[in-house]
Design a protein that fits this description.
This protein is of the alpha/beta class and 473 residues long. The protein has a domain at 4-237: Alpha-Beta Complex (Amidase signature (AS) enzymes). The protein is built from 15 helices and eleven strands. It has helices at 4-12, 17-35, 43-58, 101-108, 151-158, 175-181, 215-225, 268-283, 299-314, 332-343, 346-359, 365-386, 411-415, 422-427, 456-469; strands at 38-41, 70-74, 112-117, 164-169, 184-187, 207-212, 255-259, 287-291, 391-395, 430-438, 444-451. Strands 1-3-2-4-6-5-10-11-9-7-8 form an eleven-stranded mixed β-sheet, sandwiched between helices. α9 (299-314) crosses α11 (346-359) and α9 crosses α12. The two termini are 15 Å apart.
Amino acid sequence: MKSALEIAAAVRGGQSALVAVEESLTAIRARNEELNVFLYVDEDGARAAAAHVDEQVRRGEDPGLLAGVPIALKDNLCTTGIPTTCSSKILEGWKPPYNATVVDRLVAQGAISMGKTNLDEFAMGSSTENSAFGPTRNPLDPARVPGGSSGGSAAAVASNMTPISLGSDTGGSIRQPAALCGLVGVKPTYGLVSRYGLIAFASSLDQIGPFAHSVSDAALLLEAIAGHDPLDSTSLPEPTPSLLAHVNDGVAGKRVAIVRELVDGADEDVVRAVNKAVETLKDAGATIVELSIPELHLGLSAYYLIAPAEASSNLARFDGVRFGNRIDGEDVTAMMEATRTAGFGAEVKRRIMLGTYALSAGYFDAYYGQALKVRTRMIEAFATAYQQVDMIIGATTPSVAFEFGSKTNDPMAMYLNDVFTIPTNLAGEATISVPFGTGEANLPIGVQLLGPGRSEARLFAAARVLEIADGRA
């Protein structure tokens, strides 16, 4: 499949948008049963949207940045009249009465939604094994996981079902699957992309972002969805940033820090890839410095108190009363208990219980309150680092994609997959994962570039340097 930039250019030049849509549908039919990527494929809607784009071109109008480009949407983004399940039985069959802001922006830019992709239930997981509708498989090796929680969106792009997709990142849920599937994945600055219509996991951590094969396509997609939204109270009051124009700016004169805590514990192949990436940036004109940010070692512990606490609050709305599925009981209390028992999976229940405990009287200050203090320390530590450097480089994940079932019985082993990605969510800053080299079984390795808030343009430029050096340009 062509890149998003190539498809949009062809459609503006007069090629029917149906060409890319039918190519996407053919690819979905070929591998979706094997990989379990899409939970819902909107064939009729995609063809109708393509016809609308073609009509705009015929009238001499510009359909937008993503003219005729097929895209996959993670199934925690609300879509009018189309099932939005969060891969949970409790929302099975639920059709929202409104679109997420990012969905409306995609339509306004001419993108064509092909449907909704699988995820760990309510975005809680690192492997897409926690979906109520079965796991998604890694297109590069179906015996291995695609990462999570946005595994379906990553697999859609990695299998060329769509050239781009959207996921959400709460503790690494875009960057981690991007690394395991050999893609570019971006966690934008908190507030750069509207969260309106994203079904919340942890409201102070969640951000929507792109998957793509290339840095340029990722920049294009982020540019299409970013910008202020009055419907989201946490949205930054700024216009859409210019990103695509800066992907070839390079890194000459930039100061880049290799941070020990963002490679400690990674497999040897991953460490080698990060070190090679550091040398690549140095050869391209960057100044390399070594930094230690000890506070990053506390990120995992703080995250697994803050995120479950917010999830406990956010998921209280799924009670069988207002929307979603309902299991009848003798009274309201029995009905709610039966609904939530049947509707939520084991991992969601685990996190709700952990979060409820952390927020309970007598434990709030010792657990949740303490975690917030650690978060503040981490934000301050990043701020100090960025006074010295323009960006930070490290590993995205400790290893390449792992085999199905290898970590499902050990929650801590699973949680450690996010040890390098979580700190940026806690700080609310920008990060991009770019493929760089291979490891075990010739599977891809992701290198992570971190920057302060609103530094996406410089991160895309650095990622582009690595992309070219890795032979992916």
